[in-house]
Amino acid sequence: MALRHDWTKEEILEIYNKPLMELLYEAATVHRKHHDPNTVQVSTLLSIKTGGCPEDCGYCPQAARYHTDLEGNDLMSVNQVKAQALRAKEAGSSRVCMGAAWRNVRDGEEFDNVLEMVRTINKLDMEVCCTLGMITENQAQRLAEAGLYAYNHNLDTSEEYYKEVISTRGYEDRLKTIDNVRKTNVTVCSGGIIGMGESEEDRAGMLVALATLNPQPESVPINALVAVEGTPMEEQEPVPIWDMIRMVATTRIVMPETQVRLSAGRTQMSREGQAMCFFAGANSIFAGDKLLTTPNPDVAEDMEMFKMLGLNPQKAFAKKSKPESVEAENSRFTSKGEKPKWTRPDHTIDRNLQAHQKAKTKA
Ligand code: SF4
Is there a catalytic annotation at residue 60? Predict the structure, then answer.
């Protein structure tokens, strides 16, 4: 059956609110048609530049304007990244995702170093993903040429609720970056976070935005908010496991070929809860004891869970062949010294302003 790109919010809400057993059965059936249900892709997320971000994402401890206990660091060296990637590979990861707390990529030495990191990890026969903020088409081309496998840029939530989470750039900026990535052979990873105070309509709205992209993202991370002290969302209650299961199952049904990734929030989930998510169609996780800055289960614990559930880690390049890496000196693309343009929405968010104010008093 051809993939649908015309999902409506009403249809998605109807799926999300089905009796749970029916929803699980339908999601598991779709999952089995498109994937091996016993294989789960394992990624390691590496924070290559931590903290000091100028954006005001309400969930993020890396935003400079909030007061969290986060220890920031400058961009890692290529050798440090290589060592970490080798460790991740040994522990069973097939993909390394490098995250930098940047609003957008700026052409120059730091970006050149990131391109070298991409080449280095690609040569280790691992899939390489980056999440670096907004990028231009030229920057996406340069990443593709270096051998990037995936680019992550989350939509976070619905377009409507986005205005309650971030005030420093618009939803359309997010879509523009995804569009720039789509102009290359790099795969798209884009998802969001639940538990930020959004409604079920917002959850469905985010899935509409993702599922109506053509092609749909190859990977969709579903995060449960980890409420970090000092951020505007520090008082949010943990999201119920049933909501996670429903969200995963619905994502699986509307995006059958996508890898649905269980992301942040796994430390708050029992193994039984995670097992239900795998049954509902999740087929990817982040491994490693840290997810950028928030806690994550230990790799050994995950491997024990895999053994118990009879799951196997997916091999690198199982879904798409390894991209070629062009060395810097042979590059067809030159740095244009450009800065992505983004919209400056003229709205403010009370809880973000309050968290900023509180941070100033603490400092
Ligand atoms: S989510 Fe990314 S863009 Fe937003 S504040 Fe955190 S590091 Fe910056």
Answer: yes
